[in-house]
C-alpha cells in the first residue's frame, strides 16, 4: 500500500476564514472511471489542470490506495511527489498538467457513509458534501474549483442501475457479466456535487415542461415495494419547479432530474447536480405508512434540494465558511414554498418553534458560533441550526425589509452577476443591495457574530396628547471570542390594537414614515431608539415582532391580560400563537397563575376549531420540557419542570374535559377539502384523546383503541398508539405488538414503533436496553439510532439520568464507525453545565472521561467545545 504512515502530529487542526487563498490550479475537466467489484472499487481519474496562481499542485485524498500517477503522460516515481494521509503534493508542476491517477477504494467496508459507500447489499451511493470526494479520488476537493465532469460507471449486471450527474451519452457491455454507462454533466460544478449510484432499484417516471420549454424527464429511484410511496415527492418536485419559476424566475437547466432513495444516509438529503440522493425518510410518503408531519417534511426537503439547483449549484460557495450562503438562503426559500403549501401562519409557527427549540439554545451555549463561522476543525460539525435556521432568518429579515418586489430585484441581480461562480456572503448582500437600491450592508453584522440579541421594548400611552411612545434597546451577552459585538439591524413588524374593540388601529401614514415605520415594519438598528405614534385616541395594545420578524428574544412588559387579548384579537396567526406561548412560559417558568391563559383558550378555541383547525391545533401547543429546560441557564432541575408541566396539562385536561369528548366525536378529517386542514383535524383529535386519557378516562382508552383499529392513516394510528402506550393503558401491549406485526417490513413505520417506546415518559434504563438489543435495532442505520435517541430525548428527565450513558456510549462507538452521526448525537448533552448539582458534576465527569477515548476530529471538536464553558 502506498498510504504513508501518519508522521504528522496535528498540533492545531483549526482552519481559519482569514487564511483563505485561491487554489493554485483549476480543473478544466475531469474524466472519471468507476469500476465496482464485490471486494473493491477501482477509480481512474484524468484531470486537465491549469495554473492560476503560484504554488504547488495539491490533490486532496483520504483512505485511497494509490496504484499509479502520471503527469502529462509520464508516470511519476515516488520521489516526484509527496503523499500523506490527507494530500498528494506535486512541487514545480507544469502550468498545464494532465494528471492521471488510479486508486483502489473500499465502499463495501465504508461505515462512515461519506464518499462512495455500500448502502445495502444491492446499492452503492455517494455522499460528497462537504469533503467526501477526496475519499473517491485525488482531487482539489474544495468548492471554488469548478469543473466539467464526464463519468463512466461500470459494475456487474446484478446492478442494473448505473447513474451519474448529467446526460447519459453511452451505455454498453463490459464483458464478464458486466456493463457500463457514461454520463456527461455540461455545467461546471464543484466536486461536492458529484454523485454516482450503482444498484438494483425500481423507478417512478414523470416529466415536467419548464417555462423555457425544456422537457425534463423526472425519475425517482427506490426499492420496488416503495415506488407507490414516491407519488407525493414527485408531485412536490413538479410543484417546486414551477414555484421557482414563478417566485424567482429560475427554470431548470438539464434534461433530466433524478432522485435516489436510500435508508443508509447520515443526513436528510443531498442536492447533487441532477442526481439528488435522499434519505428514505425524506422522500417516501404515504398516509398509510408515514405521518402527516413526515409528508410535510418530504415536500419541503424535495423543494429544498431542488431549490439548491440555483442557490448552491449554479451559484456555489467560495469556501465552507460561506455554507450559510447556500443553506440559509435555500432554507428561507423552502420555508416560503411550504408557507404557500399549507397555512403561512402555521408554517411560520413550526419554523419558529424549531428555531427557538434548537438554534436559540445552541447560540446561548458552548457550541455558539456566527452563522458564518470564522474557524473550524471539522466542517461537518457546522451544519448547524445556526448556519441553517438563523441563516434563513437573516434572509427573511432582508426580504421583510425590502418587500417582495425589491427582494426579487435583488435576487435577480444575484443570479445575473454570479451564475457559474463560487461566491461569498458579501457578494450576496452586495447583489441584493445593488438590485434593490437599498443598502443592506449592516446585515453583514448578523452573519459575523454569535448570540441571540435581546430586544427590550417599553410602551407608554399619554392620553392627554393622544400619543403612544415605544422605546427600544438591544443587547447581546458578552462572548469571550467576540469582544466587539455590534448592534444589529432588527426589523420590528408591529401593529396597534384598540383595547376595547379588538380592532387594529390604522395609523397616520405620514407619521409612520417620520418614525421610520414602513408597511408596518420599523427598522431598529441602534443600541437604543424611541418612536412615537400620534393621534392614538384610546390606550392601545401593541403587537410586536409580528410573524417573528427578527430572531431575537423580545422582552416587553405585557400584562397577562394583554397577552390574552392578543390570543383572541391579533390577526397575525403567528403572534396569536406567540401570545399563548408567552403566557405559558410565564406559567411554567415564572410561576404565574394559569387562570387567564385557560380563560383565553376558552374564548379562542371553539371558534378557531371551526375556522382554522390547523391553527387551532397549534394553539394547544404547550412548550416541551426540552424547550423549557433550554430557557434555564443554571440550577436546572429537569424533574421540577416535568412536574410543573404535567400539572398544567392536567389542569387543561380538567378544564376542557367535556369539551374534549364532544370535539373528539364531532371532528372528522374527511369533511375537510384541503390536506392541510384535514391534517389539522387529525392533530386536534389526537390532542383531545391525550387530554381525556391524562385524566385516566378508560373511555378515552377505548376510543384510542378504536381509532387505532379503524384507521388506515398513520397520523391517526400513531396518535392513538401514543396515547395508549404513554398512559400505560391496558391495551398498550397488545397494540404495540399489532403495530409491529403490521409494519415490521416498513423501516420508516418501524422507526416510529421504536420512537414511541423510547419516548415513554416513564421509560427506564431497561426500556432502553430492550430497544437497543432488539433484533431490528441497527447501529449501521442512522435513522434507527435517531428514532431511539430522539425518542429518549423527548423526556429530559430520562436524558439526564440513564440517557447520559446511552449518549456517551454511542459517541464512543460511532467515533470510528460514523463520526458525523456520533458528533451530532453527543450534542444531546451539550447543556450539561446548566444542570443543578450533583447532576452537573456527574455528567461533566462522564464527558471528561470520554475525552481520551475519542479520536475523530468530529467528536473531539464537539466534546472539547462542550467542555469549554
Ligand atoms: N446540502 C445539504 C446536505 C448535507 C448536509 C450534506 C450536511 C452534507 C453535510 C442539504 O441540502 C440539506 O441541507 N439537507 C437537510 C434538509 C434540508 C431540508 C434542510 C438535511 O439533510 O437535513
Ligand atoms: Zn441544503
Account of the protein in words:
Keywords: Aminopeptidase, Hydrolase, Metal-binding, Metalloprotease, Protease, Zinc. Residues 560-867 form the Peptidase M1 alanyl aminopeptidase C-terminal domain. Its cofactor is Zn(2+). Residues 451-556 form the Peptidase M1 alanyl aminopeptidase Ig-like fold domain. It holds the Pfam family DUF3458. This protein is α+β, with helices and mostly antiparallel strands. Among the domains are: 24-200, Immunoglobulin-like, CATH 2.60.40; 320-448, Neutral Protease, domain 2 (Orthogonal Bundle); 455-550, Immunoglobulin-like; 744-869, Zincin-like fold (Alpha Horseshoe). 41% of the residues lie in helices and 22% in strands. It contains 27 helices and 32 strands. Strands 6-5-9-3-2-12-15-14 form an 8-stranded mixed sheet, with no helix packed on it. The chain has a 5-stranded mixed sheet with strand order 17-18-19-21-20, with helices on one face. It has a 4-stranded antiparallel sheet with strand order 10-11-16-13, with no helix packed on it. Strand 10 and strand 11 (123-127) form a beta hairpin. The longest helix has 34 residues, at 385-418. The protein is globular. The structure holds ligand BES and zinc ion.
Amino acid at each position: 500500500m502506498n498510504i504513508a504512515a501518519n508522521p504528522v502530529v496535528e498540533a492545531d487542526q483549526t482552519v481559519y476564514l482569514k487564511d483563505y487563498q485561491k487554489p493554485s490550479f483549476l480543473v478544466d475537466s475531469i474524466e472519471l472511471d468507476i469500476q465496482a467489484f464485490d471486494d473493491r472499487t477501482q477509480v481512474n481519474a484524468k484531470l486537465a489542470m491549469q495554473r492560476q496562481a503560484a504554488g504547488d499542485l495539491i490533490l486532496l485524498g483520504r483512505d485511497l490506495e494509490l496504484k499509479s500517477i502520471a503527469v502529462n503522460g509520464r508516470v511519476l516515481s515516488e520521489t516526484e511527489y509527496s503523499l500523506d494521509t490527507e494530500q498528494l503534493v506535486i512541487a514545480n508542476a507544469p502550468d498545464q498538467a494532465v494528471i492521471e491517477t488510479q486508486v483502489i477504494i473500499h465502499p463495501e467496508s465504508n461505515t462512515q457513509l461519506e464518499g462512495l459507500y455500500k448502502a445495502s447489499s444491492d446499492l452503492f451511493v455517494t455522499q460528497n458534501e462537504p469533503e467526501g470526494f477526496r475519499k473517491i479520488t485525488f482531487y482539489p476537493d474544495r468548492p471554488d474549483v469548478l469543473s466539467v465532469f464526464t463519468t463512466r460507471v461500470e459494475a456487474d449486471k446484478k446492478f442494473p442501475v448505473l447513474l451519474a450527474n448529467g446526460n447519459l451519452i453511452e451505455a454498453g457491455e463490459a464483458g464478464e457479466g458486466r456493463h457500463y454507462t457514461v454520463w456527461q454533466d455540461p455545467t461546471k460544478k464543484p466536486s461536492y456535487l458529484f454523485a454516482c449510484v450503482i444498484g438494483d432499484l425500481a423507478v417512478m417516471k414523470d416529466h415536467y415542461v419548464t417555462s423555457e420549454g425544456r422537457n425534463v424527464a423526472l425519475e425517482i429511484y427506490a426499492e420496488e415495494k416503495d415506488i407507490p410511496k414516491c407519488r407525493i415527492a414527485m408531485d412536490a418536485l413538479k410543484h417546486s419547479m414551477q414555484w421557482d419559476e414563478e417566485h424567482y424566475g429560475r427554470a431548470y437547466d438539464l434534461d433530466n432530474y433524478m432522485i435516489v432513495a436510500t435508508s443508509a444516509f447520515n443526513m436528510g438529503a443531498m442536492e447533487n447536480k441532477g442526481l439528488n440522493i435522499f434519505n428514505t425518510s425524506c422522500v417516501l410518503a404515504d398516509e398509510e405508512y408515514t405521518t402527516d408531519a413526515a409528508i410535510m417534511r418530504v415536500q419541503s426537503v424535495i423543494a429544498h434540494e431542488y431549490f439548491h439547483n440555483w442557490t448552491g449549484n449554479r451559484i456555489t460557495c467560495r469556501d465552507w465558511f460561506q455554507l450559510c450562503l447556500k443553506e440559509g438562503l435555500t432554507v428561507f426559500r423552502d420555508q416560503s414554498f411550504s408557507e404557500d403549501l399549507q397555512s403561512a401562519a402555521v408554517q411560520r409557527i413550526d419554523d419558529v418553534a424549531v428555531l427557538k427549540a434548537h438554534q436559540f439554545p445552541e447560540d446561548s451555549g458552548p457550541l455558539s458560533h456566527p452563522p458564518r463561522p470564522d474557524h473550524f476543525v471539522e466542517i461537518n460539525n457546522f451544519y448547524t441550526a445556526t448556519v441553517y435556521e438563523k441563516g434563513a432568518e437573516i434572509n427573511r429579515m432582508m426580504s421583510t425589509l425590502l418587500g417582495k418586489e425589491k427582494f426579487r430585484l435583488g435576487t435577480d441581480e444575484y443570479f445575473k452577476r454570479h451564475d457559474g461562480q463560487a461566491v461569498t456572503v458579501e457578494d450576496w448582500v452586495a447583489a441584493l443591495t445593488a438590485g434593490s437600491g437599498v443598502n443592506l450592508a449592516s446585515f453583514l453584522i448578523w452573519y459575523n457574530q454569535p448570540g441571540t440579541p435581546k430586544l427590550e421594548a417599553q410602551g407608554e400611552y399619554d392620553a392627554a396628547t393622544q400619543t403612544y411612545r415605544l422605546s427600544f434597546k438591544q443587547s447581546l451577552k458578552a462572548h469571550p471570542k467576540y469582544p466587539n459585538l455590534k448592534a444589529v439591524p432588527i426589523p420590528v413588524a408591529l401593529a396597534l390594537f384598540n383595547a376595547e374593540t379588538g380592532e387594529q388601529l390604522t395609523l397616520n401614514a405620514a407619521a409612520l414614515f417620520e418614525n421610520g415605520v414602513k408597511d408596518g415594519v420599523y427598522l431598529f438598528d441602534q443600541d437604543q431608539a424611541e418612536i412615537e405614534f400620534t393621534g392614538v385616541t384610546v390606550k392601545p395594545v401593541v403587537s410586536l415582532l409580528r410573524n417573528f420578524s427578527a430572531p431575537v428574544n423580545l422582552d416587553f412588559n405585557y400584562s397577562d391580560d394583554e397577552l390574552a387579548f392578543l390570543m383572541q384579537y391579533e390577526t397575525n396567526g403567528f403572534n396569536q400563537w406567540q401570545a399563548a406561548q408567552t403566557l405559558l412560559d410565564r406559567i411554567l417558568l415564572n410561576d404565574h397563575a394559569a387562570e387567564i391563559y385557560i380563560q383565553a383558550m376558552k374564548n379562542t378555541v371553539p371558534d378557531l376549531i371551526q375556522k382554522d383547525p390547523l391553527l387551532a391545533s397549534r394553539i394547544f401547543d404547550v412548550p416541551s420540557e426540552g424547550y423549557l429546560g433550554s430557557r434555564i441557564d443554571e440550577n436546572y432541575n429537569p424533574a421540577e419542570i416535568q412536574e410543573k408541566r404535567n400539572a398544567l396539562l392536567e389542569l387543561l385536561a380538567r378544564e376542557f374535559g367535556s369539551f374534549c369528548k364532544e370535539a373528539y366525536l364531532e371532528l372528522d378529517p374527511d369533511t375537510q377539502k384541503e390536506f392541510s386542514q384535514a391534517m389539522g383535524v387529525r392533530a386536534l383529535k389526537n390532542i383531545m384523546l391525550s387530554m381525556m386519557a391524562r385524566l385516566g378516562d378508560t373511555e378515552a382508552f377505548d376510543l384510542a383503541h378504536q381509532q387505532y383499529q379503524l384507521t388506515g392513516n398513520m397520523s391517526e394510528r400513531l396518535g392513538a398508539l401514543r396515547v395508549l402506550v404513554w398512559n400505560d393503558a391496558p391495551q398498550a401491549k397488545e397494540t404495540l405488538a399489532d403495530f409491529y406485526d403490521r409494519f415490521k417490513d416498513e423501516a420508516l413505520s418501524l422507526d416510529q414503533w421504536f420512537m414511541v417506546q423510547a419516548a415513554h415518559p416513564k421509560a427506564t434504563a431497561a426500556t432502553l436496553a430492550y430497544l437497543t438489543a432488539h433484533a431490528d435495532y441497527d447501529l449501521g442505520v442512522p435513522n434507527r439510532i435517531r428514532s431511539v435517541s430522539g425518542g429518549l430525548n423527548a423526556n429530559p428527565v430520562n436524558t439526564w439520568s440513564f440517557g447520559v450513558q446511552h449518549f456517551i456510549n454511542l459517541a464512543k462507538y460511532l467515533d470510528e464507525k460514523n463520526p458525523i452521526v456520533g458528533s451530532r448525537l453527543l450534542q444531546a448533552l451539550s447543556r450539561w453545565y446548566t444542570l443543578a448539582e450533583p447532576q452537573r458534576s456527574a455528567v461533566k465527569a462522564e464527558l471528561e472521561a470520554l475525552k481520551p477515548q475519542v479520536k475523530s476530529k468530529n467528536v473531539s471538536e464537539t466534546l472539547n467545545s462542550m467542555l469549554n464553558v
